[in-house]
Amino acid sequence: MGGSPSLPEVSLTADRVVLITGGNTGIGYETAKWIAMRGARVIIACRSEERAKAAIEQMQAEFKEERSKGTPGLCSCETLALEFMALDLASLKSVESFIDNFKAKEIKLHILLCNAGIALHAQEYTEDGFEIMFQVNYLGHFLLVAKLLPLMLNSGEDCRLIFVSSEAHRTASFDLDKAQGKHHTKENFKRLLYYGNSKLYQIMQMYVLNRRLQKTNVTINSLHPGIVETEIARNSTDLQAWKLFFQLAKLVHVTKTPIEGAKTSITAAVNPQFKDTRDAYFVDMKISQPNSLARDQEKQEALWRYSVDCLKDFIKTEDMNYLEEL
Q1: What is the pLDDT of residue 238?
Q2: Is 201 a catalytic residue?
Q3: Whose CA is closest to 285, among 34, 6, 26?
Q4: 29, 138, 194, 195: which one is catalytic?
Q5: pTM, entire model
Q6: What is the secondary structure of 211-265 as a DSSP string?
Q7: 274 FRET partner, CA 20 to 30 A, in 26, 234, 262, 286?
Q8: How many CB atoms lie within 10 A of CB 175?
Q9: Number of CB atoms found within 10 A of residue 106's CB
Q10: Rounded to an integer, what distance in angstroms lies between the CA atom of residue 133 and that of residue 156?
Q11: Is the pLDDT score of 77 beyond 50?
Q12: Angle at Cα 290 formed by Cα 287 and Cα 292, nearest 5°?
């Protein structure tokens, strides 16, 4: 992509801990690799240990290649500080287990990138009873954030929480009575709508959290990575309209490679320029604005209450009290 902005020049150290969900493929892979190549300790949270370890091996090889080319801004380390932790966002028990395992490491957490996601999935429900895009893209991350935020609040200055959302939030509607889509049959389930809804909820969560965390060391932002050629669209191969849209997007050169898509995530995560930035919705590495629905404070708070209720078996009231007391 000729003339695209370059990655932010920043030097990180291995005591800067970064957690990326879905860091083994696509945008997450490039985000994890480039942040690790700047020197940070990066934990990749995903389902498959085999795929994550293969991804880490590939990242190490690509790091050596970048070093041999003399790429500027790389850390001086021999190997990247990368590790895998098992996380399946479609299982709230798996999320809870991940949280316990992460806390057992007794390390800090400076950057949490909620990157994992699925798109345009056919109607399906998780073992917890939630529509799968709602849970993987939004609710599983909500639980992760709720339980790891206290750790971030105690990890020193400039801690950042980033939601990888999407311009698809502009296709969303807001009706919590229909949030799980159970009033639809499999045939008339609107995949783009429910994908857009899950991405809308992420942006709304950003605003709710910033209201509660505005006087703290933790900032929350969100972003649209662009129309990126990744595995995320693997569930849409039977959608002819979507396939046509993607082909047209490629034809007029608006699609991005994973590294081009990852630049916005990397910018939001590590660019010193955005140290104190909150409530930003980044597009193409610049601050943009989500739609008015995402910015509706009353609806944001309704979603918050709904989400806490969805997680009542996993989050006790006292677990959330710290947010109200800040």
Answers
A1: 56
A2: no
A3: 6
A4: 195
A5: 0.91
A6: HHHTTSSEEEEEEE--EE-SGGGGGGTT-HHHHHHHHHHHHTT-EE-HHHHHHHH
A7: 26
A8: 8
A9: 7
A10: 33
A11: yes
A12: 140
- Round to whole Å and give the CA distance between 167 and 291: 9
- Find the mean pLDDT for residues 6-33: 91
Query: If pLDDT is split at 50, 70 and 90, which confidence band does 189 have?
Result: very high
Query: Distance between CA 282 and CA 296 in Å, rounded?
Result: 18
Distance (Å, rounded) from C-alpha 230 to C-alpha 24?
A: 12
Is-contact 134 194, C-beta < 8 A?
Answer: yes
End-to-end CA distance of the chain: 44
What are the structural domains of the chain? 17-321 (3.40.50.720)
Instruction: Give the tokens for residue 275.
Output: 């140290």
Picking from 202, 229, 180, the residue whose alpha carbon sits closest to that of residue 290 is: 202
Please enumerate in sequence order all residues whose Cβ is within 8 A of that of 22, keeping only pairs 6 or more positions apart, or say none: 28, 45, 46, 115, 116, 117
Residue 72, classed as helix, strand or coil, is: coil
- Specify whether the CB–CB gap between 245 and 314 falls below 8 A: no
